[in-house]
Amino acid sequence: MNTISRESERPEHAWLATLVRELFQTENSARLHPVVEAERLGDVPPARALRAVAAHALEALDELPPLVTRQGLPVSHAGKRLGAALSALRDHFIDLLINTEKSYRGTLIGMRHGVDLVELIQYTAHEQGDLELARWCGEWLDRRRPLVEETAHQLAWFAANPEVARKSVKANPLALGLRTLIQSAEQLAERLRPGTSQQLATDEAREAS
Fold this sequence. Notes:
The chain is mostly helical. The protein is 83% helix and 0% strand. It has helices spanning 3-9, 11-41, 45-70, 77-92, 100-127, 131-153, 155-160, 162-165, 173-192, 196-208. The chain is elongated.
């Protein structure tokens, strides 16, 4: 039975197919972005934790196509392309505005999302009788959870290295200009907040006296 007919006959299976497409996207992001993050950090413990997650994601992406095909589920090349596009978007735009520690935490959030997603796929596959997929999810979780926990544990490294934590991810003129623009907008918004102008006048009068 082909994928289209199976999904159309079983609406709940179509939902599982949607989750699997999302998995291709998140795993491709997990394959790509931790490596970018690790290269920025250099040979330090957080970078090694990131590379371990990326290596496992690469293995998962090799295993997934034959597995989901056997289950009548889609091999989502579009999902993989979306994961790559999201990583590129973050690298070229979002990372212009944040520091190294916040970028690391953003990557960690993506990893935790992946764990939650695979847990949901495991439960759903088990409910629908796709025991091979459910078993694969269990094995994936057994390997990925400790890697993500180690990545989270490495937040302590940033606490011990505040100069690196506070460092801007990108320090080119465009990044500096954008951060200055945002800071100016925040300051203007604070001044325009009701009651702020009066308080500023009061403070200035006190300083003058």
